[in-house]
Amino acid sequence: MPLLEGKKALIFGVANHRSIAWAIAQSLASEGAQLVFTYQERMEKYVRELAAKIPGTEVIPCDVQSDEELDSAFAKAGEVFGGSLDILIHAVAFAPPSELENPFVQTTREGFHTALDISAYSLVAMAKRAVPLMQQNGGSITSLTYMASQRVMPKYNVMAVAKAALECSTRYLAYELGEHNIRVNTISAGPLNTLAARGVSGLTGFRNHVAEIAPLRRNIEQSEVGDTALFLSSNLARAITGETLYVDAGYNVMGA
């Protein structure tokens, strides 16, 4: 029997075929999950094209900076799923390009607020709305982080601060939601060639460095993050919560 037979998953962050969220969607669907994607207005065409590749997948508009749109998205997902939700995937992050190009000391108040709001607070906002749909049967909430939350990665700047806030939020949510059998974890993926990552200068050089230094002597693939999310979403990970799981070919254990 498939690992996620009968499970219902709401996925935020699918943008194009290189998105980690898309890789996660494919992994979840391969094990029987029913999916709903959300989309920003400007990405609707691409999200609908991808959703069409997984039969039965629904799409719902949502701007994560809007409480009204979050309310609507979870209400509509609840209708599609018959009033319950098993899996929530948070694969949303953004900082204004100028905040990644300029020195960190020049971070603007507006840029700081935008990065933290979209990349970190949105996890809390989503979890709040997921609880009523999950509290009867429990569930799994998984987000995406990056090791720049723990180490200085030049040009990652305010996004690193946002990822640190995301990881801390993961632990607090795991503590509070555990009584409802809702698990909350985050995946720290190695550098991948995604739309978001291309906004950080020096990505190609760093990917080459990781391939040389990481214990597995290679970079990772989107599908490997997808399969880790599948594991965390399944009953195989039923005792795992509040964790940051590294999927980076082992790079995080190295001193270089």
UniProtKB/TrEMBL annotation:
Keywords: Fatty acid biosynthesis, Fatty acid metabolism, Lipid biosynthesis, Lipid metabolism, NAD, Oxidoreductase. The keyword Oxidoreductase applies. It holds the Pfam family adh_short_C2. It catalyses: a 2,3-saturated acyl-[ACP] + NAD(+) = a (2E)-enoyl-[ACP] + NADH + H(+). Its EC number is 1.3.1.9. Pathway: Lipid metabolism. It is an enzyme of class 1 (oxidoreductase). InterPro entries: Enoyl-ACP_Rdtase_NADH (IPR014358), NAD(P)-bd_dom_sf (IPR036291), SDR_fam (IPR002347). This is Enoyl-[acyl-carrier-protein] reductase [NADH]. It comes from the Bacteria. Belongs to the short-chain dehydrogenases/reductases (SDR) family. FabI subfamily.
